[in-house]
User: Fold these one by one.
Assistant:
Number 1:
Amino acid sequence: MENNHKLTERCSARSHLASELLLRKAIGTRTVLLVLLCVNATIMLPGCGGGSSASTGPGAVTVIVQPANANLFLGQTQQFQASITGTANTSVAWSVNGVAGGNANVGTVSESGAYTAPGTLPSPASVTVTAVSQADPQASASASVTLQDNIVVSVAPNGVTVPTGGAQIFTAGISATGSPATGVTWTVNGIAGGNSTVGTIVPNGGDSALYTAPAAVPSPAAVNVTATSVADTSKSGNASVTIACTSTNSISPSSTSIALGQTRTFTASFCLAPGATIAWDVNGIAGGNPTVGTIVPNGAESALYAAPADIPGANPVTIHATAGSATASAIVTLTSSIGVVVSPSSASVPIAQRVSFVATITNASDTSALWSVNGIPNGSGIVGQICVPGSNPCAAPAAPISGSVDFLAPASVPATNPVTVTAASNADPSKSGSATVVITGPSGGIAVAVTPSYAFVSPSGAALSTQQFFATVTGSPDPNVTWSAQSAVTGQGCAGAACGLVDGNGLYTAPSAAPSPNAISVIATSEADSTKSASATASITSGPMIEIILPSSVMAGAVEGFPFEVEGLNFVPGSGSGASTILINGTARGTTCTTAESCATALNPSDVQSAATLTIQVQNPGSPGALSNPVPFIVVPFDVSEGVLSVTSTQPAATGINLIVTEPTTAAASAPIDVDLIGFLTGGNNCGIGESPLTVTRPSSGSTIVSLCIHGTGLDPSFAYTFTSPSGAPGGDIGVTAFAISGLFPNMIELDLQISSTTLPGLRALFITTPNSDRAASTGMLEVQ
C-alpha cells in the first residue's frame, strides 16, 4: 500500500481524492489498484481526459466532463460526456458560462451535453461548459471551449463607376467553416449607412444593399463600400466605387432675348464639390455693370440678371458662370420696343433761322436722344446744326439730350434740300424718328433773318426785362420790317400784350408774368413782302439769368486750373447748399456767389483737355432749384499758331484773313494778366519807370544785356516772355530771361534782354504766355535803335 500511495502522488497531486478513495476501498489486487489509480490520475492531467469535482466527506460525489477542452468554429457542435461517481443518481444539469442551457451569445448545450457554438463570435472568444450533479449540486465539472472562425467576406461588384445621383446594388459573399451568422452591416467610407457627401447605402434584402451616389462628386471621387460580418466584426469586404459627374457645364437658358430693364433668372449646371461656389460675370465683368447689365446670385446655382437701360455697344452680351476651373456661358440678346416720334414731322425754315423739334421716346427709362442732320451727328454748317435750346451761338449737345432741341438752318440753301433731322434713342440707337426740313433762302425772293434767335428776359419792371432783336432782309432793296410778338405755340400761351411788346426798332419788352407754355415768338415781317418773315424765341424768367461768362472760350490742353466766373441776375449769394450753384454739363461744382450778380468756380485741366462745348447753367437752391438759361462754353482745339498781317510803305494794304479768337482763361475778373508800368532796372534793384516805348541801342558788335522791370497783374517769372519782330512776326532775335524781384512791388518781374548787333531795329510788342497757352500783349513796349 505504501508503494501504491507513492505512485498515486506521482500521477497527480490533484487526484488525491480519487487515490484516497481507491486505497480506502482496497478492492482487488495491488496491481489493479495501481492501474485504476493511474487511470484516475491520468484523467485529471491535460490531454488525459475530463475535469472533475467532488463534494467532501464520506460518500462524496465526483463529476468528470470529457473532453476537457475543445476548439470549435462558429455553429459547430461538440458532444460532452459527464461521469458521476459516489451516487446512484448519474444525471447532471448543463450550463454555458453559468447560463443554464446557454444562449445565442455564448452557445447552447443540450440535456445530453451536446454543445452548439453561437453564430457570432463572443468576446472573449472562449466559453466554459459545465455539468452539475443533480444528486449533489456542490459537485460539478467543466470543459473549456475556444471559439474561432475563418470567415471571408467579399463585395461585388468591385471597381464600378456610378453617376452622381445614380444607384448600384452590391452583394456580400461570405465563406466560412461551420455555420456562422451570415448577416452583414454596410458602411460607406466607414460611415454607417453613408451620408449625402459620400453616398448612402441601405439593405436591399438578403446579403445585398442599394447604394445611391451623392448629388455632387466628392473629393476624392472614389469611395469604399464595406460589408462587415455580424458574426465577426473584424471580418469585412470592400468594393471601390468611383462617382462620376454626368452633368455638362452649362447655363440654362443657354441663349435668350431680354428687353431693356427686364430681369431673367439663369441656372448653372456643374458638378460642384462640397462647399464650392459659383462666380457670375457679364462680358468678363464680375457682377456686371449698368452698361452691360448686372447679375447677382439668388441661390446656390442660380443668379438674377437685370438688363441695362440702354443697348450696349456690344450686343449680345455673354453671361459666364465659373466654378473652380469649370466655366459655362449663355448668350443674351438685348432687345427693346422703344418708339421715337419727332415733332413737328416737317418744317420750313429760312436760312440762318431756327425751329424747335421735340423727341418723344416711349417704352424706355432713358428718354434722351442722339440728334443728327442727314446722318451727320449734330449736323454741320452746310446742312444745318442741332443746338442746345437757347444757346447762342449754337452749342451742339455734348451728350444725348432729352426733350427739345433747336435746328439752326445753314447760311445758304444746301445742295440737298430738304434735309432730314433724326432723333435716335440713346437707349437703343436702332430706334429713331425723323422730321423733314425745307431750307428756304433769298434766291428768287425775299428772306428775313432775326438775331439773336433765342433770349431769356426778366418780367417787366425787373432788370433785364428788355431784349434787343435785329432783323436782316435780303433779296429786297427795302430793309424795313414790322415787329410783333405772339405765343410760339399755336392755340396756347399768351395773346396780345400778355406776350410783351416790340417797338419799331426790335426792342422787346417782356410782359409782367411768363405765359404757359413759356415761349414767345418775336417776329420780323418784311414790309416789301408780308409773306416773308422770321422769328426768334423769348422766354420769361424770374429765376437766375446768365449774361456773361468769363472766360467764354478756352484752348484745349490746359495744364493748370483756372477761375471761371458767371455774371447775371437773381443769383443767391453765399456758398454751399443755401446758395446758387454753377452747373457744368448738368454737374454741380463748388461755387461761391459774392453777390446776386456774380458767381465763381474753378475749371480743372481735365475739363478742357479736348475740344468740346460745355453747357453752363446756374441753379438756385430749392428742390428742384430754378435753372438759368443755358450758355455754351467753347473749348477750341489746341492751336498756338500766329497769323500776321504785314504792311509796308510800298504795299500799304493787305488781304484780310479770318481769325478765330479764343478768349484766354485769364479773362476771368479774378485772374487777369496785364502790364501797367515798365522801366529800366539798375543796380540795387532800382526800377526807373519810363514811358512807352523804352528805347535800347544795339551794340556795334557782339551783344549786351539790358535789364527791364515790368509790373502788372498776375505776372509770374514762370510765364514765357517774348518780343515780336518789327514786322509783327514772332520774334527770335531778342533773348529774354525772366526773374522775380525781391524787395520791390509785388508782381514786378525782371526781364533780361540779350541785344546783339544783328537785332533788327524797330518797335516791339511784348507777349506773355501762361502754361495754359493763354496770352496777353503789351504793344509798343520796346523800340530797338
Note: The first strand starts at residue 51 and ends at 54.
Number 2:
Amino acid sequence: MPLFTRFQSFLRNIFSPHHADSDLDREVQSHLQLLTDENIRAGMPPKEAQLAARIELGGAELVKEQVRDQQIGNWLRSVLSDFRYGSRQLRKNPGFTAVAVLTLALGISVNATMFSLVSAFLLRHPPGRDPERVAVVTSINPGNGFLPDDSPISIPNYLAWREANQVFADTAAADQYRSVNLTSVNQSALGQPQSIQSAAVSANYFSVLGVSPELGRTFNDQEVQPGRNHVVVLSHELWERQFASDASLLGRTIRLNRENYTVIGIMPSSFHLMGFTPQLWTPLEVTAADQTAAAHKDRSLRLFARLKPGVTIEQARAEFSALARRAEQDFPETEKGWGAAVRTLPDFLVYHVGIRNGLAVVMTTVGFVLLIACANVAGLLLARAAGRRKELAIRLALGAGGLRIIRQLLTENMLIAFLGGAFGLLLANWGINFVRANMNFNEAISAVPVSLDWNVLLFALAASVLCALLCGLAPALNASRTDVNNNLKEEGRGSSSSRSHSRLRTTMVTCQIAVALFLLVGTGLLFRGIFMIEHQNLGFRSEHLLTANVALDDAHYKDASQQTLFVRNLLRQLTPLPGVEAVAVASNLPATGPGFVTFRTQGQPELPSGQPLTASDNVVTSDFFQVAGIPLLRGRVFTEQDTPLAPHVVVVNQEFVNRHFHDQNPLGKQIQLNTGGAVSQWSEIVGVVGNVKTYSEGVVDDPGVYEPFLQRPISYFCLMLRTGSDPAALAAPLRSAVAQLDAELPLANVITMPALIDRQKGGNPFFVHVLASFAFLALILAGIGIYGLVAYTVGQRTHEIAIRMALGAKRLEVLRMILRDGMKMTLIGAAVGLALALPLPRVFDAIFYGLHLREPRLYFVVPLTILIVALLATYIPARRASRVDPMSALHQD
C-alpha cells in the first residue's frame, strides 16, 4: 500500500472511527451476502444458505474484530477507547478517584518540590560554551579537613603549570574571594560607601569559560599589566541595582578602593557560577613578588582551563598530579605533601557547594514517601478490583484475554496517576515558592534559581508513569487471573482471588510500616543532631554583641603602621559611644570559620612535611577575650605592651593544650607559626583560654591560636562591640564613627552576633523541618494504609465474624482477634524497619562531616509511636467488627 494511502487510512481510523466502522460493516455484510448467494445457487433453501454462510464466515463481529486488529492505527484507537472507558469508570466512583488522586498528588508534589533543588544545583549547566570541556584545578591540602581537595593554588604554580601542561588549550586564573570598597565619583549618586565582593581574573578568564559580555568588552592582555589595570567589568545585578541599568556607564569611571576604574563591560544576568557571587571583576595583576619561592605559601587562585580536543579529564588529572609532584621536588619547604585535583566545571561547582549529600538524603526520603503513597493507592486498587471480580469475570468469559484486562486496568491507573501528577504539580509550585523563600540563609545558595523548570516537569511526568506501574501492576496481574467460574457465582467472595488480594495488601502495608519507621528514625537522628548544634555551648557569649567587617584598602593603609594607627583611632572613637561597654578587633569572629595556620612546636620531633600540625588562627586586640566573653584558664591575655618590638607571644585554647602538650604546662613553650611571612618567628605561649567552636553549626573543637594585633596588623578585620542594651541600636552610631575617621571606608555586614549565628545555621532547621514533615507524612500514610487494610479485611470477613458471634463468640473476643491481626502485621513491619535503621548513625557519620549522631532512645520511641498509630488505626474497624449484628449480616449474605 502506498505511503500516502496508509497515512490517509491511519487518519480515517483515528479521527473518523464511525465512518470506518460503517464501511467495515457494509463490507462484511456484502461478503456474507455473496456467500449466501453461492449457497442458494448450490441448491440450498435461503434460510439454510444464510445460516451456512454465517457459519463459514465465523461470526460477523469476530470478523470485524479481526479486521480492526489489522487496520493501521488500531492500537492507538484501542488505547483511546481504553482511556474513555477508564475515565467513565473513575467518574462513576468519585470518592475512590478523589482519595487515590490526592494520595498520589501528595507523594508527587513533595518529590517534584525537592527535585527542583536537584535540578537547580545538579542538573543546570553552568553558563558558557561547552562547560563540560572546562576543567578546574585546585590544590589538595595535606592537612585534610573539610573538602581538602578544594584548596586554592599559588600564583607561582599557576604560572608554571600554565606553561608546562600539554592538556589544556588555554588556562585562566581567578581569585574569587576579594572585596573592594565602592564609591562613585559623585558621592550623592551612590550614597554611603559599600563593600562589594569582587574577583580578580586573568585576561582570558571569560573566554576560557566561553561567555561574552552583554555590553562592552572584557579584559585584554595589556590590562593585566601593573599600572594599566584600572578597568572593571560589572555584573548585571550590580549594574542594575546601583547604576539603574544605565548603558552610558560604559567608558565612565567609578571609585574602587579610592582609585578611579573605567567600566568596560557589563556581564549578562545569566552569568553566575554556583557558589561564587562576585559583583565585579578586575584584572589579576601579577608582580615580581608574586613569582618568588616565598609566594608558594600564598594560595588564593583557582585555575579554569579548556581541554584540548580529544583530551579527557582523566588525562588532565594524571598530568597535573605529575606537575604537583614536580613542584614538591622543586620547593619542598612549601609544597611538600600538596597535590593537585582536576574536575570538570559542573562537577567542581557541585562539589564546592557541598550540597550533594544533603540532596541525596532528601530525595531518598521523599522517594520513600512516594512509595508509601503508591502502596496506599495499590491497596485501594486491590480492594476495588475485588469489588469488580464479577465484571472482570464476565469480560474474560466473553473472550477478553488476560493481557487485555491488564492493559485496561493499567490505563485506568495511568489516568489516576496523571491526575495526581497534575494536581501534584500545582502543590509543587506552591512548595517551590516556599523552599525558595526559606533558602535566603546563604548568599551563594540563595543566588541559585530554584523554579518549576522543564526538568521538574519531566520528572513529574516520569514519577506519574512510575506511580501508575507501581500502583497498578500487581492489582492488574492479580485481577487478570480471576477465576471465571467461581466469581460468576454468589459464593465467589471466599475465593482464592480474594485471599491473594488480602495477602498482597498485607505485604504492602507491612512494607509501609517498615519504611515509615526507617524514615522516622533517620529524621529523628538528624533532628537530634541539629538540636545539639543549635543548643550547644559555643564557648563565648554571643548576646549583646554588635559586629561589622572592615576592609582597609592599600591606597591609604598599605603599611602595617597605618593599619595599626587606624585601629587605635577607631577603638578610641567607639569606646565612648553610649551603651558601649568594650570594643575589640579580630581577624575572624568567633564560631564563624577562622583561617588555619600550620606550626611547629619547639623541642618536639618534627613531623613529615606532608603531615603538618594545623590550628585555627585569629589575630585579635587586647580586649578581644573580654568582649567575646572567652574565659582565661591560665596565664595572661594580650596587653598594649605586646608591640612589634616586644618578644612575640600567642595565646592558645584548651584543645591546643590537650592535643599537643597533654599534661604538660604550656606556658612558656615556644611555637613557630607559618603565617605566610618571609621569616616565621618563634612565639611564646603566655596564656590558655577556653575552647570556642570553629563553626556555630559544627560540633568540633579545633586547636586554636590567637596572635596580638599589634604584632601582626591586618587590613581586613571584624569589629566587635559589647553593649549593655540592644546592640542593633548602635548600628547607626557605629557607621557615623567610622565615617568621621574615613568617609570613603565602608562598613560591611553590620549585624548582631545572635542574628549572624542564626543566619549561619539557617539551612539546618529548614533541612530538618522539611525531613520531619516528610517523615510525618509517611507516618500518616502508613496509618491510613493500616486502617484501610483492616477496614477492608473486616468488610470481607463480615460473614465469618457473624457466624463466630452466632456460635457464641463474645464482642471482646472479636475485638481482640482483629487487633491481634493488625498488631502482628505492625510488629513484623516495625522489626524490618528497625533492622534497616540500625546502620543509619554510621551512614550519617560518613555523609555529614563532623556530625556524630548517637541517640539509642529513638530505637525505642519510634517503634512505640508506630505501634500506637497502628493500634489506633486498627481499633476503629475492629470496634465496628465487634458490633456486627449476626442475624442482619447472615440475612444480607
Note: Residues 210 and 313 are 18 Å apart (CA to CA).
Number 3:
Amino acid sequence: MPRLRLSILFVLALSTVLGGRSYAADPSGELPTRTYLHKNWQIQSSCEVKATGEQISSAGFDAKGWHKTDIPATVVGALVTVKTYPDPNYGTNLKSFPGMNYSDKHLFANQDMPEGSSFRCSWWYRTEFTLPAGEGKKTRWLNFLGINYRANIWINGHKVEDANDVAGTYRSYEFDVSKFLRPGKANALAVEVSAPGKYDPGITWVDWNPTPPDKDMGIWKEVFLTSSGNVAVRHPFVATKLDAEYTTAELTVSGEVRNVSNEPVKGVLRAEVDGIELQQPVELNGGESKVVKFAPEQFAKLKLAHPRLWWPYQMGTPNLYTAKLSFDIGKQASDAASVTFGIREVTSELTEKGHRLFKVNGKKVLIRGAAWAPDLLFRWSSEKLDADLAYVRDMNMNTIRLEGRLDRDEFFEKTDRLGILVMPGWTCCDAWEKWKSWTGDQNRVAAASLRDQITRLRTHPSVFVWLNGSDNPPPADVETMYLSIEKELEWPNPVVSSASEQNAAVSGESGVKMTGPYEYVPPVYWLADTRAGGAYGYNTETSPGPAIPTRQSLEKFIPKEHLWPIDEVWNYHAGGERFTTVNVFTDGLTRRYGPASSLDDYERKAQAMTYDGERAMFEAYGRNKYTSTGVIQWMLNNAWPSLIWHLYDYYLVPAGGYFGTKKACEPVHVQYSYDDNSVGVVNGTYEALKGVKVSAKIYSIDAKEKASRDAALDLGADSSTKAFDLPKPEGLTQTYFLKLELRDAAGKLLSDNFYWLSTKPDELDWDQRKDTVYTPQKEFGDLTGLNNLPTAKIAITKTVRASGRNSVVTVIAENKSSGVAFMVHPRLTRGKGGEDLTPIFWSDNYFSLLPGEKKSVTARFDSASLQGATPELVVEGWNVEPTEH
C-alpha cells in the first residue's frame, strides 16, 4: 500500500493519539519498554523445508532460499511484497496465485484448502535478534497480539508453546521465555503457522471481496518482548460510574498482579490517576495471580466532582484520563502498566416500537456510520488509518462498525482521541456462526478469543457496544458462555446478541435489524419502505448499492483494454454470492438517466446516482429520528479495489457517495422528503436554534424558476422539523431542479441542498420483492433531461495558502451560463496530468450552480503529499468541459 502522510490539521492532532499504551519507550522511564521484533524475518513453506523446529530456531540456521519479510505480515502479503506474486489488486492477477483455481473466489473462505495448494502446508517464520547483556535478573515476556491461526513457537531450539494451545485469530499471547533467551548473544525465534480449517473461527471476507489463498495465514499483529520483576502487572482497567445528573463519577481502578516466582511475595500496588495517588499492600503465593481493585468505598479520593466526560466528537469533547499501576517489592519496582480511559456512560433501551436506542451520558444519539475493512492482506499503514478516520469525521458520521477484523490497538486509541464511536463484534457466514460444526476446539477458542478481545476493548471509551453474533444470534449454550465472560470481565457497555432482528435464546430481542438492501434502490425507497431497510429502527448494515470509482482510480486496477464496456474484469472486482456484477445498479442507471454511451458518460451518471442514493439514505434516517435510531452504511471502505460498497475508493479518492453522505450528515441540515414532497430541517446539534429561515425554489431543466416557498422556524435541540410542503407548479419539465437554503436569524447560510427530480415518480414493486437485499421497481423516474443540458461556462479563481505542511486551496466557481452547471467536480492533482492528491478534504464537491451563481469551496491537504509537485486544479462536471488551472 502506498505510504501516505497526513497533516495534523486534518486529523485534529492525531500525533497525540498513542497515549496510554505507548508504542515507544516511556519518557519517564517508569513503564516497561516494548522491544519490537518486526524486522529481518524469513518465511518458507514446510513443504519446502524439512528441518525441525529445533533446528530452525537455532542461531545461524541456513535460511538460504527463504523469502525475506518484515512483520506483521500474512504469508501471501509477504510474498507479494517481495514480488514472488504479482500485485493482487490489478486486473485478475489474483487468479494466478497458487490455490486460487476454485470456482467461486469468495466461497473458498468456507472450504478446506484445495488439493495441491502450497498453503495446505504450514509456513515457518523465523528471525534472529540480540538482547543486551548485564540487565540483572529479569523475567522476559514474549508477546504475540495476533496469529492466524495455529502456531508452534520455538526459541533457541526449545519449544515454547504448542499449536494445540496457540489457536485462534483473535487471541493474544504472552509467554515467559526467560529460561530460553541468551542475553548478549544471538537468539533465534521460529514460528510454525497453519491456516484455519473449514470450521475454525478465523478471518474470512464473506462476500465483500476475495479471500486470499492462504486465508490470511500468518503473524498479522505485533510481536514484542517486555520484562518485569517477579510480579508482573497486567490488564489495568478503570470502571466508571456516573450519578444520575452526570456531575460526579466514581472510579474503580483494577489490575491483575501475577507472581511468576515459586516463592510467596509481599509488596505494594500503587495507583495514580489524575493526580490522585493510592496504594495497598498485596500478598501473593508462589505462582499466584489475582485481580486487585482500588474501589471508591475504600478510597474516597476516587469520587470525582465535575469530571471531564468523554463525548463523541459531535456531542462534546472526547476527554481522556490516564491511570498507572505499579508494583513494588521492598524498594524495588517490579513492574508497571498504564491505561488511557474515558469517563462516560453508554446505555441502550428498546423504544415503544422495539427499536434499540443508544444514549451517551444520558443523551440520545442517532447512530450514523459505516463498516470498516482493513487491507485484504492486512498490510498496515498508520498514515492510511489517519486518513480513514479523518474521512469519517469529514463526512460527519459518528460510528464505525467492525464485523470481525478487530484491528490493532492503534485503531481504538485513535478513535478514543477523535471521539468516533466503534461497534465491534463477531463475523457472519463462516465458522463463527457454524456452531453445530464446533466439534473440535472451536468452543474453547471462541471463548478465549472473546476473553482477550473484551479485556482490551473494555478500556476504550469509543467502543460503545459488543455484538455476540452477526447475521444470527448464538445458540443458548454459546450465548450463555459469552455473556458469562462479559459479566466476569465487567464489560461496561451494552451487549447485543447479533446484528439481525432475530430473538436470542437467552437475551431475547436484539432491537436491531439487518434487512438490507445491499443493491441499488431509488431515493424514495428509504422513506417508502416500512417492512425492511426503510428509515425506522436500527439498521446495522445497508446500502444503496455499488459505488463506481472515478475513471482515474479505475485505470489503476482495470487494464486499459477492459475499461469499457463493463466485462468480466470489472465483475471480478465486484462482490461474491449475489453481488458478482453491478448489473442491477447499471440497469437503474440506464432506466433513470439513459443508457451510457461511453465510460465517461457512465462515470458522470454513476457519480450522480451514488451521491443521490447515499444522501437519500442518510437523510431519511435523519428525518425520522428517533423512530429511526441508527444506520450503518455497508461499507465505509474496501479491502481491495472494488466497485461496490464504499464511500471512498481504495486509493482514498472521495467521489459522489462521499459527498452525498457529507451533505446529508451535516450538523444542521435542510432536506427534501421524497415520500411527501416536503422540506424539513434536521438539527443534529444539542442546542436549540431560534428563528431560522428555510427557502425552496423549483426550476425547470432550463433553469427557469417555476415556484418558491419559505418559512421561519424554531428548531429544538437534536430534532427533526418539517418546514412546509412544496407547491406543484404548472408547466414543469419532466426533469427539474430543487434548490434549498437554510439561514440563521442573522441571514448567515447554515445549509444548502440541490436536488434533481422527476415529475414521473419511481415506483417500487413491493409484491415482487423476494427478499430484502433488493426491491425491484415498477416504474423509473425520468432524469434523461439532464443529458440535454447545454455546456456550462465556469469562471474559476484559485488561491493557495500554505502554513508549514498545512495547505488550503480555495476555489471560487461562478456560472457564466444561462443554464445549470450540474455536478461541478473540482479535484487537485500532483502537478499537471498527475494522480489525484489524497487524502484531501473538500468543504463541498459535486455541487451545482444556477445561472450567475458563485460558490467558494476549500480543499485541505498535507503539503508533503504533493511530493514536490505543484497542486494542479482540474474542474470537471456533468456538463462542464474539463479545464486545468
Note: The first strand starts at residue 35 and ends at 36.
Number 4:
Amino acid sequence: MKRLVAGLSMLIYLLGICYSSAYCQTNNGGLGKVVSKLKSYSSEHLVEKTYLHFDKPYYVAGDTIYFKAYVTLGEKHQPSGLSGVLHVDLINTIGKIDQSIKLQISNGLTWGDFALPDSLPKGDYRVRAYTQWMRNEGDDGYFNQTIPVGSANKDKVLESSTTRKAANIKPDLQFFPEGGELVTGVSSKVAFKAVGADGLGVKVDGVVLDNTGNEVCKFTAAHLGMGYFYLTPELGKTYKARITYANGDHDTADLPLSSPNGIMLSINNDAVDSAPLKIIANESYFTENRDKIIGLIVYSGGVATTVPIKLDSAIIHLAILKRHLYPGITKVTLFSATGEPLSERLIFIQRPDQLNLAIDPDKTGYHTHEKVHININASNRADSAVSGHFSVSVIDEGKVPVDENSEITIDNYLLLTSELKGRIEQPNYYFTNVNDETRANLDLVMLTHGYRRFEWKRLLNNGYAPIAFQPERGLEITGVAKNLSDKPIANGTVSLIPMHSGSFMKTVTDDRGRFRFSNLTFSDTDKFILQAVNAKGKNNTRLTYDKDAPEPVIIAPAFAGNNHIDQLMSAYMDNSVKQQEDIARYGGFKGRFLKNITIKDKKTTDISTHPDLVSPQFADQVVTRDALEKSGEPTLSGRLLGKLHGFAVNPFNGRSSAGLIVVDGVEQPPEFMLDDINPNDVESVAALVYAGSSGIYGVRGGHGVLVITTRQGKGLDSKDIASIGVLPISPKGFYKAREFYSPKYDIAAPANNRTDYRTTIYWKPEMATDKDGSTSFEYYNADGPGTYRLVIEGIDEKGNIGRQVYRYKVE
C-alpha cells in the first residue's frame, strides 16, 4: 500500500506540475534520449487533419453533396493557420476521380459541394480531402468518407474490380496481448478481434488449448467481433484457439508465443477519474534487472511526461489521473534503462463535450411550412461563453433515416478514428449515450488497434522519411520556358497577365527554364495570359504550362454491399421516386411551386441554391456531355451549333442569342462568350426558353437562359499545354461554393398541388458565435410531417470540439 501511495503521489506531481511543459525532461539518460527524439520529430512533423461535416449521410443521383471542412493543426486540434488550400475529390466506385475542387482555407475553415449528375450510377462513392502538408503522411493521413449514392436508374451500376466476395474469404481472427506480448508466468489480458470478408466484426466463440490438448479457457466476442480473456503462459508451452463462427464454420489459430524473460504493463481504464496501472516483471526479468531505473512516458495531446521508476519489486502499482490528460488517445509506454521500448498500452480519455452547445428553439413543435427560429449558445466546461465556428444541418428523419452508431462526427474522427490504424466500425457508438458498457467496448478498440501517429522504434532509429511536401499557402502556376530549339531558357522573364482584372506579375526562370508564381488567389472562372522573353528581351520562346492534376487515388479494397445502408436508403429512394412522379404530374416548378416561395432580391441569381432547376425535368432542353463530345468541334459554340432550339449560336465570335448565361450557378456578365469555356469541361447545357422556366431569373431571363454545368475537373486532358511567346491559360482556381436553397413560404398564399420533397431541410456551413457565445438562424419546414433532426458541430479557437443533436416534431 505504501508503494501505491508513493507512486500515485509521484505521478500526481509529474502530471500536475510538469504538464505545462511540452516535454518534461528527466535525469534518466534513456528516457532523456527518447524525449529528445520525440521533440525533434514533433517539431518537424506537425499534425494537420481535416474533417468534413456533410449535410446528410447518403444521396441520390441529381442531389448536391454539401460539406463544411474543419482543418486543424497539432494534437490539440486548434484551427490550422499552416495551409491555405484544401483539395477535395469525389471518387467513384472504381477508384476514378469524378470531380476535384480546390477550396481556400481561412483560419482552418472552408466549405464546398459536389453536384451529382442525374446520370450517376449508384454505388459507394468516396470523398477525399487533404492539404499538401498532409501528403507527407500519405493516404492514411487524408480524410476519407464513403458516401452511398442511390439512383432511380437501376441499370447503371459501376462494379469495382476489387470487390471482395464474402463467399471466398473466411473471417480473420487476431490476438493482441495487453502491453504487446505475452510474458511467461504473468497473467495477461489477451484481446481479440474477428473480422468478416465485408470488413465488419463477426460473432465468434472459442476455447484456448495448450500444446498438450488441455483446455485453458473459453472466450466469446462481446462487441463487433471483439472480446478478451486472461491467460498465464507456462514455460515451454504453446497455445492455440479452436474457433466457432456464428455461421457454424470452424477454424483454429495460433496464439502469439510468450517471452521467457519479460516485463509488461497493464492498465485498468474502467474508472472515470483515474486509471490504475501495474508493471509486472516475470521472475527471470526481475532477477536480471532488479533495482535498475526503468521509466514510463505518458504521451497525451502532444505532451510527453516522463516517470522514472526503480524496479525494486516484481509488481509495481501506479495510477494515472485522467484530469491532467487531454481528451482522446493517451499512449503509455514502458522503457528500459537504455531507452528501449518494452511494453505499450493505449487508453482513451473520455470526457463530456469540450463545448456545450445549448439549442433553444422558439417552439417545442411545429407545423409543415412553418418558420423555425433557433438560438444557439456555446460555452466551455467552465461555463464561460465561447467564440467558435459551427455548421448546422437539418434533415427529415422520416425520409433520411440515420444510423447514429455508424456516423462519422467531428469528435469521433478527430479524437479516435484518425489516430488509429485500421477501420473503426460504428465509431459514434462510443460517443453516444456513454456508459460503463460503451467505455469497456472502447477499451477493446484500444487493445486491438495500433496507434497511427508514430512508432517508438522507428522514431528512435530515424526511420521516418524527411518532409517532402511543404504547406500550400495559396495557388500556384508553374511551367517551363524553352527556346525554339527546345533548350531551357535561364534568367528569362515570364509575365502572368489576368485577362479580366487584377495586376500582372513577373518572375525569372531558373537554370532549367522553370518558372513559378506562388501564393495566388483566383477563382475557377479566372483566365490568364503567360508571356515570356529570354534574357535579351526576345520573345522567341516556347512556353509550357503545367496542368494541375489531383493526387493519384489509392484504391482501397472494396467490401461486399452494405445491406444495412441499403435498407436505410430505401425510404430516401421512395421519396425520390415520389418527387419524380410529382414532377411528371405537375410539370416541375413551372411557376407553380414558386408562388409559395420568396426569393431574396440580389444582383445575381445563384441557381446552384436549387440545383433541381437545371435538371432535365425542369429545363426546356438539355444538351448532354455525350452529345457535345460527338460533335468533335474544338469550341463550345461549335459543338452547340444546330443543337439548341430557340437560340442562335455564332461560332465565329462565341456568342449566343440567350439573354443570360449561368455557369455553375453564377450569372455571367453580358460580354461573356461561350468559347471562354473549355468544351471538354462541360457536363451539360440546359436551355430555358419559355417564360415559365426562364422567368425565375427576372428581366434578364426574359430573353432565355443557358445554364452550363461543368464537370469540375473530370476528364481533363492531363498533357501539358505549349505555346510560342504567349500562352492563354485557364488554371484551376478556388471553387465558389453553392448557396443552399432554402425556400421562404408565404403563409397567406394559396396552397398548391406541389409537395415540398426536401430531405435536407436546412444547411448552413458557417455560423460564428459572438463574444457572448450566441448565434441564431431560421428556416422553413418542408411538407413532410414527422421527426426532424438538427445537428450542429464545430470548434473554438483553442481546439475544443462541440457537437449537439436536437430533434423536434412536425405535424
Note: Residues 563-586 form the longest helix (24 residues).
